[in-house]
Amino acid sequence: MADKPTSGEILGVPYNFERPNFSSMLSSYWQPGEGMLVEKPFGVGYTLNLANWRSWVVVLVAGALLWQQEQGSSEESQDAEDEPVEVIVDDDN
What we know:
Residues 36-56 form the DUF5808 domain. This is DUF5808 domain-containing protein. It comes from Natronorubrum sulfidifaciens JCM 14089. This protein starts with 6 loop residues before the first strand and ends in an 11-residue tail after the last helix. The mean pLDDT is 87. The longest helix has 30 residues, at 53-82. Helix content is 41%, strand content 17%. It has helices at 22-29, 53-82; strands at 7-10, 13-16, 37-39, 43-44, 46-48. The strands form two sheets. The chain has a three-stranded antiparallel sheet with strand order 1-2-4, with no helix packed on it. A two-stranded antiparallel ribbon has the order 3-5. With 93 residues, the chain is α+β, with helices and mostly antiparallel strands.
């Protein structure tokens, strides 16, 4: 049986299933001079290049949106606790 390739490209999307080590992980996420997206060190697709300033903008925007969502859900739960609850019992026995 032929060995399957552990890395390559399918329909323009890169994949890599070779076991990564620490130095390859570090060099994959930090590539000065490259674009915002770089090939993942393990798996399928692309990841953010943390040496590019645009990636940090994406991380900050995602963090701000997550924080805003968490603040909104905690305010909604507080509002729901303050409102009275109406219970209707239908006894048709």
